[in-house]
Amino acid sequence: MRVVALISGGKDSCYNMMQCAAAGHHIVALANLKPAENTGQTDELDSYMYQTVGHHAVDLYADALDLPLYRGFIKGTSINIGRVYTACQEDEVEDLYHLMKLVKDKEGVEGVSVGAILSDYQRVRVEDVCRRLNLQPLAYLWRRNQEILLKEMISSNIQAIIIKVAGFGLDPNKHLGKTLDQMVPHLLELSEKYGVHVCGEGGEYETFTLDCPLFKKKIVVDSAEVVVHSADAFAPVAYLHFLKLHLENKQGESSGMLVVKSCSCEVTCNDDDDIFPSSEEDEPQENIPVIWKSLNHNSLDFTKTFGSSGKSLSGYQWFSGITARCLPSEERNAQEAAREAFSSLRANMTSEGLKPKDIILVHLYMKSMKDFNVINSVYVTEFDLCPPARVCVETLLPDGVLFCIDCLAHKYDIASDDVLCDEKLVMHVQSISHWAPANIGPYSQSIKVGDVLYCAGQIALVPCTMQLVSGGIRTEAIVSLRHVERVLQAMSHNTALHHVITASCYVTDSKHIPIAHSLWQKKLGECKKVEDSETYHDATGVWGLLTVVVISHLPRDAAIEWHVVAVIDDPLQRKYFAMKMLSEGFQIECETVESSSASCASISIRLSLISPSASQLDLDGPLRDLVHMFRQAVEKLSEDCRASPLSFRAFFKDDIFDAETLQIGLQECLEKYLGKEAPALILVPVVDLPGKEVIHITCWLS
Fold this sequence. Notes:
Elements: E1 2-6, H1 11-22, E2 26-35, H2 60-65, E3 69-74, H3 93-107, E4 111-113, H4 120-133, E5 136-138, H5 146-155, E6 159-165, H6 172-175, H7 180-194, E7 205-211, E8 217-230, E9 237-249, E10 307-308, E11 316-325, H8 334-350, E12 359-366, H9 372-379, E13 389-394, E14 401-410, E15 424-427, E16 446-449, E17 452-455, E18 461-462, E19 467-468, H10 473-491, E20 500-507, H11 513-534, E21 545-550, E22 560-567, E23 575-583, E24 586-594, E25 601-609, H12 620-635, E26 645-653, H13 659-674, E27 680-686, E28 693-701
Parallel strand pairs: 1-2, 1-4, 2-3, 4-5, 12-13, 20-21, 26-27
Antiparallel strand pairs: 6-7, 6-9, 8-9, 10-11, 11-14, 12-14, 15-16, 16-17, 17-22, 18-19, 20-22, 23-24, 24-25, 25-28, 26-28
Helix pairs in contact: 3-4, 5-7, 8-9, 12-13
């Protein structure tokens, strides 16, 4: 695509240009903002958004790159400094908006090159500008490992010098004017000793690029002076003020020859297959026809039952049964059916004092992925700039049903004792990068409330191309789970897969079930080794409960999708217990994990058919025992646990059960055993389940 590169003169914006070119994009213009002339600050502006030191030399970039340079003035200040940016005319971000609009109108650009590495503040604001102008942000350095990235820049022939120091261990007299190559050993030492960001992401230093493979001419500094801004004894702040510079032709040098390392998205896409099972273990079971005594095909459509849990003490509530229907005989189209379904959701939430902006997690079960774009066009209008995390799969819904939605909402009532509310943090990354996939729909990668991270489902898209990775199910499984790990870590430092408390894995073939199980166990084993090597030797961590189900189709024709909920707690202090019983030809197994903070819990219940016979089987007994075991699990939670049962999600084999009968039976049992504390019942018909399982129930308590 045609791209404008936001440049500051620093190494990051230059290297991101190289990444854009390597990805096949065509850089057609440069853009830069500089201090307004009437500010009296001619060298450096106190800006949250922009590097301005060295801005006098940026004009040389136009000739060095032989590209048009668009420059504007920074007239605004940092006014809207929240985590979510909304347009404010006096804010300095609006200066960027007007500059980008000018470049788009003049050059017809479609994308924007952005050198952001770690700053959510900058990323969110650039993404907001791009959203309003329908431009695609390209941030290929986003969340890259800084040590690897710095060395990669140097090996790719980025010639940059230090022009500002403002961090502990950096001396203006020693380090200003030094090249990156000269500074690497010292920066690595500071990072190891004091946690200094080796790429300067903590504001420790700033650079100016004199040459890179994209330059047709190189910049030469003839003279400069050191300006001391703050003579602090431990972390002095000073910068270089360029007095004279000139351009030189790169005669005999490889002008325009790109040297970019292989795409970091692909590095681990082709891992060895030795982690996957080669035996026939966990092979899909042959389905045995079962006749239920209580079978009744004339009962009501199970998707027509709207339900909700009660509201927990922490302000959580789950809504289920929101359904869009569109029969061929009806005049309304799919969009109208979708609007009606969301209207119903809003009405039910309003009756509980909630709004769509309070939703933090959505499960969207579709009849056919062919309707995805139509449904998305309505879905996107229901949410603001911070949409909920979302899981989207196609499954075996009844004819005439477009989709079913269930969702978790959170809102604190104003407490009389002025207790602080749990802050809601949203990760909604829209930039193309090498980190993890940008959002392909109106959802956020993750939402954090209190100590809980609610993540969106992840499929194996290559982040820099947003295309499904090649290599089959094994590669897809590795890459998609890697995306989950990266989102967790980005949401909260040191958070990893062992912090997951419940996980669902959707696959499109029964043969993929053992692959999902094997990879999950391997990854958790790696987490355990890390824990053991650091501080723990005798204790055993409690890992999250995994549910693997086979559904008919996934977005982008993916073979596997991972969805997790994680807790920032101590897995070694979690509580775990299990129960097992036999019930009229069935085996019921229950596992419970309670977070060490006692803020939430996950319960998994499996109903397996162990002795099928030709005679009819009574469904009432097993369902009654299953729900009774669920109540026992809830009662076993610690006295400190404040969590309430919110959702009761029943994945069931579609070819064995009559859904309506199952829905009625479970609802009656839940109301009998839990009364007003009954969670929202969610029925999900699936193609297959592991082993002899015929129902797998996952329950969330918060």
